[in-house]
Amino acid sequence: MPNMTRSTTLAACTAGVVALTVGLASPAANAVTKLTHAQAAAMFRDAGITWSSSGNCSDRNNPTCTSFEQINQTTVQGVITLKQASGCAINITGGTETGHAGGTYSHWNGYKVDISPYTCVSNYITGHFTYIGKRSDGASMYRSAAGNIYARESNHWDITYYNCGCD
């Protein structure tokens, strides 16, 4: 009987560890928080971050607009972190609107923003982040210590936020 008790206890402990491990690895643990355009705009406004669009609009389905609809909260926090760390003016020129390249870590899916290449922020990115080579389109890429990628396209910075960089 003592062996049966040990086996039962071991099985119960193993089941508990498996349950904890499964709980930690669940998709919910990696879920992203999506924001409305109004929520993101309020956060950007409060942080002193501006945005603009060639169409002077925020319709997600219009490529001439700059929309924040369905942007990831970590992306918004990442832009705010960049502004706070750099002390530079930040102007967003692209958000979650249609018209950008697709993919998992895309504008449409809330991971990317485009910002104006002002001298101050450009100097901060190139001076504080690690150059990691050129993208297939020729854009120079820099990686922050947090792992976010800053690609210098012809007329803007294309930034991919995997996390907020705020820890």
UniProtKB/TrEMBL annotation:
Keyword Signal included in the entry's annotation: yes
InterPro entries assigned to the protein according to its UniProt record, in alphabetical order: TAT_signal
Signal peptide annotation: 1-31
Keywords for the protein's UniProt record, in alphabetical order: Signal
Protein name: Uncharacterized protein
Source species of the chain: Carbonactinospora thermoautotrophica
